[in-house]
Amino acid sequence: MAAKPIYRVVVHQHGEVWELYVREIFQSELWGFIEVEEFVFGDPNRVVVDPTSEKLERTLEGVKRSYLPLNAIMRIDEVERGGPLKAVKSEARVAEFPRPFPLPSRDS
Length: 108
What we know:
mainly beta
C-alpha cells in the first residue's frame, strides 16, 4: 500500500507566512474554508534548533483539524516528504473573501 501523500500548505497568518505540512486536505463544509488534518512535524531528533519551527509545533500541538480561510492560503503543493515548519514575517496584506450578500450599514 502506498504511503499517504504529504501536502505543503503556505498560508498567511497574522502578519506571518506559515509553511505547514499535512497529510489530509479537503474542502470544508464551512463556506470559504479548507480543512487540514494530520500535521506532519519535522524530525524530533534534529540537532539544529529552529525557534520558529518550535513555536509553530507548540501552537499546533494537540490540534486535530484546522480550518484555513481560502483567502489566506497562498499555495498548496503535494510533496515527497515533510519538512520543518516555518514562520516568516510578512508585510503582505490579505484581501477579504468576497461575499455574495451586502453587509448591513453601520448607521443601522
